[in-house]
Backbone:
């Protein structure tokens, strides 16, 4: 344990190239792993690029997809990075096909996780740059405002936009995000495909791995 969080490029690289492995998949509050290691969670619509972003952060191509229950299984997948930081790939919201009852259970799990997880340091709300903020994202931002944890709004797939369109999107989104109390004021623009914005995100998370 270090009292002075390291912040150099070397330290970022040491953390994010350390061994990353799947440690748990939870579909109920009772089955969550112990809250002993600092945690970062990734939330967003189904298909927004959550698994791709987790893979890009740890430099592995198929980590998040190779969990024992891939695809549409609605569970929280926990990945331990060098036993210092846990990355949580949350199930996508906005499923049209799920029954109301199942969706209710699901909302309950996500809400209790977000409200009660003592080891949760940051949440990341992923937004597809091709779509911008959608009604479900806004609902989620309101939910995240009620939790005690700061969240980052992270744009994904920025490779699909021109620099000009990205600029326009960032300007309008920054205004909206600014009105949410728990949102970090700076939107992080990423492309897992082109590895853009990945280092910026790693930099945000690094201090939590050393506290
Ligand atoms: N163009 C582009 N496509 C991406 C990027 N990241 C993910 N995708 C694609 O978006 C789809 C959904 O990605 P996935 O990571 O499985 O999303 P998840 O459902 O949120 O976990 C896949 O077809 C990915 O190849 C990106 O940075 N750029
Ligand atoms: Mg996924």
Residues:
């Amino acid at each position: 344990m270090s009292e002075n969080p390291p912040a150099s490029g070397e330290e970022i690289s040491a953390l994010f190239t350390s061994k990353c492995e799947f440690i748990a998949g939870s579909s109920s509050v009772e089955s969550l792993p112990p809250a002993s290691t600092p945690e970062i969670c990734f939330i967003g619509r189904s298909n927004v690029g959550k698994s791709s972003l987790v893979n890009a952060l740890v430099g592995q191509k198929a980590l998040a997809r190779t969990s024992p229950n891939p695809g549409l299984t609605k569970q929280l997948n926990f990945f331990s990075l060098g036993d210092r930081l846990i990355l949580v790939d949350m199930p996508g919201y906005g499923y049209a096909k799920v029954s109301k009852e199942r969706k209710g259970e699901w909302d309950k799990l996500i809400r209790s996780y977000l409200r009660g997880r003592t080891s949760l340091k940051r949440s990341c709300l992923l937004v597809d740059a091709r779509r911008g903020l959608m009604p479900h994202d806004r609902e989620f931002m309101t939910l995240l405002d009620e939790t005690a944890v700061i969240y980052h709004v992270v744009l994904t797939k920025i490779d699909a936009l021109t620099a000009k369109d990205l600029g326009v999107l960032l300007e309008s989104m920054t205004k909206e995000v600014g009105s949410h109390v728990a949102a970090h004021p700076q939107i992080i623009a990423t492309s897992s495909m082109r590895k853009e914005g990945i280092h910026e995100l790693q930099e945000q998370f690094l201090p939590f791995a050393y506290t």
Remarks:
- The chain has one domain: 9-209.
